Task: structure prediction
Amino acid sequence: MEKRQLGRDGLTVSAVGLGCMGMSEFYGSRDDTESIATIHRALDLGVNLLDTADIYGPFTNEELVGKAIARRRGEVTLATKFGIVRGEDPQSRAANGRPEYVRSACEASLRRLGVETIDLYYQHRVDPNTPIEDTVGAMSQLVAEGKVRFLGLSEAGPQTLRRACAVHQIAALQSEYSLWTRDPEARVLPTCRELGIGFVAYSPLGRGFFTGRFRSPDDFEAGDFRRSTPRFQGGNFSRNLELVRRIEQMAAEKGCRPAQLALAWVLAQGREIVPIFGTKRRSYLEENLGALRIELTRQDLDRLNALVPPGIAAGDRYPEQTMKLIESAR
Result:
């Protein structure tokens, strides 16, 4: 397994990571037995970066991951997140970065995960009502106490990254990045490169769209949050499906799966970038890892950029209320 470094301080991880969110929520029904088997298979194949968060479930995904790694802790670089607070409305989201909340959230995550130390601890969304210096200051105390090894932010903008790094080095920024979500390229990725921050790309397969398995919104299970996401609704779905067809055609020419091609594109954008794809099935895990064997030429990359140019995706990537928490998109 190829390794990549996140940040300047020696956090080295597998070139791709496994996002565990969908094992517990958001993407239809759950199967804990298969999910745990998928995590074990990922570790067997050298994928050591596992990504979860307290909001997933909520809380139950950390428990699932903790159960899966209980006897394999030494093989895992464990990443989790705090800072998104859910309300009674399923679409309701708020951010909390208050120092006292940082500590209580971390201690709760440690208990659920069954570990003494979190390897990479992210603030899941920037709290507009709490100075980032206060939040990162509290996070740095967790490092000093040995509860956390490295710090990360998620969906933060350039100025926030600069202010955060003035308090404590940030190892990684996690933001959405894929062929149809190119927002980070203009300002965020250059800032990460300048400051020595690694970039963890979530949803590198367009929330599964680039697998080619979905031809209609009705293909999603009841309760799948993509049904309420603008890119997967109505005319947007139809227009975005054309992007999938373009990727499928090129993938067929290269003798690979469309998901592999889409993931290989992300991997080719820089060695400081580590994509984390989500799956709860071993078969899809193994298929996605095939992306590591695909070599894209400069001509291939130019062609993909022409087939799916920046800004072409129809619709926002989250519902309006959730988009308000995404600082990197502003």
In short: The radius of gyration is 19 Å. The mean pLDDT is 96.
